[in-house]
From TrEMBL:
GO terms for biological process: L-leucine catabolic process. It comes from the Bacteria. It comes from Subtercola vilae. This is Monooxygenase. Residues 1-26 are annotated as: Disordered. The keyword Glycosyltransferase does not apply. InterPro entries: Acyl-CoA_DH_C (IPR013107), Acyl-CoA_Oxase/DH_mid-dom_sf (IPR046373), AcylCo_DH-like_C (IPR036250), AcylCoA_DH/ox_N_sf (IPR037069), AcylCoA_DH/oxidase_NM_dom_sf (IPR009100). GO terms for molecular function: 3-methylbutanoyl-CoA dehydrogenase activity; flavin adenine dinucleotide binding; monooxygenase activity.
Length: 419
C-alpha cells in the first residue's frame, strides 16, 4: 500500500485508506509501537518516490493522524493515548525506519505538543492539550535559535510577533505553530501557540535540501501575529514563573534526533540486507569462491559490525529515553539542575554515537550490497542523505566536549538553545 496522492490538506478525516477505522486504539506501549511499525511499512513502500517528488507531506501527516500517533502523548480523557515519552521515542524511531522525514515531523510534533507542559501554567496546559488532542492537530515550530529572535510588541492586552526564521519544521502541513520571541526593550523571552493557517504567517516554501526533504523545514515570515497576553506560556500577571523543568526542551528534542537517526540507520540496514539476500552476487575472483552472497565472509563481517554498533546505540538511547521520560512525567517542581545536567550529558553521548555510527552504516551498506545497488531505482541513498542532512543540526564536537567535561571535571552543561 502506498500513500501518494491520497490525502487532502484541508480535512482531518480524508486521506490514505484508514486501515484502523474499525480497530480500537492500542492500550499498551507495545501496541502503540506495533501501530507505528504498520505506519512505517506503509511509508517505506513509496518513500523514494515521494522524496523525489518533494511535495508537502499532507498525505503522510494524515496517515499519522488516522493511526492515532499524533495524539499518543495526549490525555486519555480527551481521547489521547496517555502514553509516556519512553514510548513516544520508540514510536518516532519506528516511523523513521520507513521514512526519516516523517519520523522527524512526528518527533518535533511531540516536542511542541509538550511545550505547554514545559513552560506554561496549569490552566494553559489543560487548554492546549484538550485543543490538540480533541481535534487531532499537528504542531510545527518556528523557533530557530540561530536566527534573530522574533520581536514582540505589547499592544494593550495583546502581543504582536514579527520577524523572519530561516527554518520552521512542520510548515504548511502543521495545524498549530509554536512561536518564540523577545519582548521589545527587555530580555524577556515568550512562547506562544498559534493557528498556522493565518495571513500573518507566510511560509517561503523553499526547503529543497539534500535530505529530510519532506519535513517542511523552510523559511517563514511572521508578519504581525497577534496573541492575547493571557496566552503567553508560563506568564502570570505578565511575569514568567521559572522552573528548572522549563529547560528540558533541548534535551528532549536532542533525544528525538537520536531516535530518528537510529530509525534511519535501522531502515538502511533492513533495506540493504534484503537486497543482499535477494540480489547481491558473490565475488568470483577471490580464490575462495562462494555460491551465494550470504556465504561471503566480508559481507557477514560487515553486517555483523554495523548491527553490533546499532544494537549498542539502541541500548544507550533507550537508557536515555527511560531517564528523561521519568523526569518529564514527574512533578515539575522536583527537577534539580544537577539531574537535568546528568540527563543532558547522557543524551549528548547517545546522540553523538548514533550520528557517527549511523553515518558509517548508511555509507557502508553500499559496499555490502554491490555496485548495482547504487541505482536510483534502489534508493539506498535516501538513508545517507537524510542522516547526513540532519546530523549537521549542531556540531558533534560540542557534544563530545559536554561528555568530556562531565567525565573529567564533573561539570554539567549549562542550559542553552543547543544543550
Amino acid at each position: 500500500m502506498t500513500i501518494t496522492d491520497t490525502a487532502s490538506p484541508t480535512t482531518n478525516n480524508s486521506g490514505p485508506e484508514n486501515r484502523w477505522a474499525n480497530q480500537a486504539r492500542p492500550s499498551t506501549a507495545a501496541g502503540w509501537i506495533r501501530r507505528a511499525a504498520e505506519v512505517s511499512t506503509i511509508l517505506a513502500a513509496d518513500a523514494v518516490e515521494r522524496d523525489n517528488a518533494n511535495q508537502p507531506p499532507f498525505a503522510e501527516v494524515q496517515l499519522l493522524k488516522n493511526s492515532g500517533l499524533v495524539t499518543l502523548l495526549g490525555p486519555a480523557g480527551h481521547g489521547g493515548g496517555g502514553e509516556t515519552w519512553d514510548t513516544a521515542y520508540r514510536v518516532i524511531r519506528e516511523v523513521a525506519r520507513g521514512d526519516g522525514s516523517i519520523g522527524q515531523l512526528l518527533g518535533y510534533h511531540y516536542l511542541w505538543a509538550w511545550a505547554a507542559r514545559l513552560v506554561a501554567t496549569e490552566d494553559q496546559i489543560s487548554a492546549v492539550e484538550e485543543l490538540y488532542t480533541t481535534n487531532n492537530l499537528l504542531f510545527g515550530g518556528a523557533v530557530n535559535p540561530r536566527d534573530s529572535d522574533l520581536i514582540i510588541v505589547e499592544e494593550g492586552d495583546e502581543l504582536v510577533f514579527t520577524g523572519h526564521k530561516s527554518f520552521s519544521t512542520g510548515g504548511r502541513v502543521s495545524d498549530l505553530t509554536v512561536l518564540e520571541g523577545i519582548l521589545e526593550g527587555t530580555d524577556t523571552h515568550i512562547f506562544a501557540i498559534v493557528p498556522t493557517e493565518q495571513p500573518a504567517i507566510v511560509f517561503g516554501n523553499d526547503w529543497n535540501n539534500l535530505g529530510q526533504r519532506l519535513t517542511e523545514s523552510g523559511s517563514v515570515d511572521i508578519r504581525g501575529v497577534r496573541v492575547d497576553w493571557a496566552s503567553a506560556a508560563g506568564f502570570v500577571g505578565k511575569v514568567f514563573q521559572p522552573l528548572v523543568y522549563n529547560t528540558l526542551n533541548v534535551p528532549t528534542i536532542q533525544l528525538v534526533f537520536a531516535n530518528f537517526y537510529l530509525g534511519i540507520a535501522q531502515g538502511a540496514i533492513a533495506t540493504a540486507t534484503e537486497y543482499t539476500r535477494e540480489k547481491t552476487r558473490s565475488w568470483p575472483y577471490g580464490g575462495d569462491n562462494k555460491p551465494s552472497a550470504g556465504e561471503e565472509w566480508y559481507l557477514l563481517e560487515g553486517y555483523g559490525e554495523l548491527a553490533s554498533k546499532l544494537w549498542a546505540d539502541e541500548a544507550l538511547i533507550d537508557k536515555a529515553g527511560a531517564e528523561i521520560s521519568a523526569v518529564l512525567h514527574a512533578p515539575r517542581e522536583t527537577l534539580t539542575e544537577r539531574r537535568r545536567g546528568e540527563i543532558a550529558v547522557l543524551i549528548a553521548a547517545a546522540k553523538l554515537r548514533i550520528a557517527e555510527d549511523g553515518l558509517e552504516a548508511t555509507t557502508k551498506v553500499f559496499e555490502l550490497t554491490g555496485a548495482r545497488a547504487s541505482s536510483n531505482t534502489v534508493g539506498l541513498d535516501i538513508f545517507w542523505r537524510n542522516l547526513r542532512t540532519h546530523t549537521l543540526h549542531d556540531p558533534l564536537p560540542y557534544k563530545k566536549r559536554e561528555v568530556g567535561q562531565y567525565v573529567l571535571l564533573n561539570e554539567i552543561p549549562e542550559p542553552s538553545w543547543y544543550t
